[in-house]
Automatic annotation (TrEMBL):
This is Response regulator transcription factor. Residues 4-122 form the Response regulatory domain. InterPro entries: CheY-like_superfamily, NreC/VraR/RcsB-like_REC, Sig_transdc_resp-reg_C-effctor, Sig_transdc_resp-reg_receiver, Tscrpt_reg_LuxR_C, WalR-like. Keywords: DNA-binding, Phosphoprotein, Transcription, Transcription regulation. The modification 4-aspartylphosphate is found at residue 55. Residues 156-221 form the HTH luxR-type domain. It comes from Streptomyces sirii.
Amino acid sequence: MTIKVLLADDQALLRSAFRVLVDSEPDMRVVGEASDGAQAYELTKAERPDVVLMDIRMPGVDGLAATRMISRDPQLTDVRVVILTTFEVDDYVVQSLRNGASGFLGKGAEPDEMLGAIRIAAAGEALLSPAATKGLIAKFLAQGGSPADGGPGDRGTERLASLTGREREVLVLVAGGLSNDEIAEQLAVSPLTVKTHVNRAMAKLGARDRAQLVVIAYESGLVRPRVQ
């Protein structure tokens, strides 16, 4: 199955480079390019890409607002947003994760890393390894970050009581960046059982994917950030 990719960046040169890279893969194709967040949202509605590579800093409607618009559109629930950033630690990246992004990737990433990120996101997983995603969230929250109004962190705090003991246990391990196979090995259960617990936790907490589960785990206090 071909992965449809939408590119959103205000730099035409970067978009051209990304297009060449993506279109060189037999299982991917670029279905559109946007130079600002408003155009990215409209093209996402028109083209229904599997993955949107979204720059944060764009004129007019920025990538943060566009990510929120996409994640809150009930017709775009299958679209995954991967944030592109030039900074390893960026408060806007955390806000993007809270507002529906599946992860983030540095613009200086190697081509294979970017292509891998697209495939991971398209498969419905979160970009939790690079472990920078959970490290970034931990650092931001340790510095006093507060949940976005109406974001998944708020809902997570209210609904954490709805999780079973095993679901809480799995959530802690997901926040630690473990894969389903690694969690299954640690808990001595099958990967399918872990997947079921993860899916139930996402449904109860209103999370789109594993990245949002990590945010909820930290914001709810279930997992405490470790400051180096």
